[in-house]
Amino acid sequence: MTSLPPAAPIAVAINPHAAFGTTARAGAEVMAELARRGRYAVELRAETWSALADGVAGELRRGISALLVVGGDGMVHLAVNALAGTQVPLGIVPTGTGNDFARMFNLPTEPRTAVGHFLQALEQPRRVDLGRVTRADGTSCWFAGVLSAGFDAAVNDRANRWRFPRGRLRYPLAMLRELASFRPLRYSLVVDGVPRRTDAMLVAVANGRSIGGGMRIVPEAAYDDGALDLFIVSPLSRPAFLGIFPRVYAGRHTSHPAVHIERVRTVRLEAAGVTAYADGEPVGRLPVSVDVVPGALSAAV
Predict the structure, then answer these.
(1) Where are the beta strands (DSSP E) in the chain?
(2) Signal sequence span per UniProt (predicted)?
């Protein structure tokens, strides 16, 4: 592949709506820090996700040395769907409410410090795996962290509709509200070619370790192992589920008999009336098929 010219800029995609508007201020700090360090950067802002994605695609066609996103996991999701399979590195200034992808790499959250970390990592980017989702109509998309399809997806949907509370409390409070009415689901799965049926509270396919701003559902997951982790929680009473919940943040739930984790390469998920979420973003109704693509993304992390 032909390398980009030295003058190719860094594209900086900024989500002004992430973390209730605080990202807009962080974006200005990022641009100022890049200028202070003598780096040529192009700022990308838009009012809608689709317009921002179009802007990123346009800069990719013109030629960029890297894409630096300022925002949360939704911005990471937008970026990996633009960069998957290319040599253009992704950098992150994490300013969202979850930041689960950034948490995997212990990225700094202070904008100026994050820029310095990104520029240093840009000297030797690493290749990381991505998950790929294929919908029933044959269309596909990529995800960096976790695809969820069940209770956790319902919680995501509820949390995304709330404007308050802000920050990390939003996800656990949405979980408690959803738990009041949620019932276990019947899933049909095909795991590495082998069919199975199961009743479960939730099913997730993880490339990363955490969801919901630090809930370490698969604490041993790695981004460079060429595999995904299938995470299943069998039906539980509400008190039992609430008993497990505090242990998830420390990754100490994995020994519970209702929790099942296995290393996989492909999973097909089917359940009635369920929308799958990936990196916290809706990606389509089940059924979907998920597979891992090793080294699909260049990351300056």
Answers:
(1) 10-14, 41-45, 66-71, 90-94, 126-135, 140-143, 146-150, 185-191, 194-200, 202-206, 228-233, 259-264, 266-270, 275-278, 281-285, 288-299
(2) none
Looking at residue 5, its pLDDT comes to 46
Pair of tokens at residue 103: 């948490």
pLDDT reading at 127 higher than 80: yes
pLDDT at 2: 47
| pTM reported for the whole predicted model | 0.89
What is the Cα–Cα distance from 129 to 132, expressed in whole angstroms? 10
The string of DSSP codes covering 170-192 is HHHHHHHHHHTT---EEEEEEET
User: Under 8 Å CB-to-CB from 219, ≥6 apart: which residues?
Assistant: 209, 251, 254
CB 292 within 8 A of CB 129: yes
Which sign, positive or negative, has the C-alpha torsion 85, 30, 118, 66? Answer: positive
pLDDT score of 97 = 79
Q: Per-residue DSSP letters for 85-123?
A: TSSPPEEEEE-SS--HHHHHTT---SHHHHHHHHHHHHT
Which residue from 108, 97, 109, 110 is spatially nearest to 167, judged by alpha carbons?
Answer: 97
| Residue linked to tokens 């990606």 | 283
Q: Quote the CA–CA distance of 257 and 254 in Å, as a whole number.
A: 8
What is the pLDDT confidence band of residue 1, given thresholds at 50, 70 and 90? very low
pLDDT digits (tens, 9 = 90+) for 167-179: 666 667 777 676 7
**β-pair type (66-71, 90-94):** parallel
Residue, of 7 and 204, whose pLDDT is higher: 204
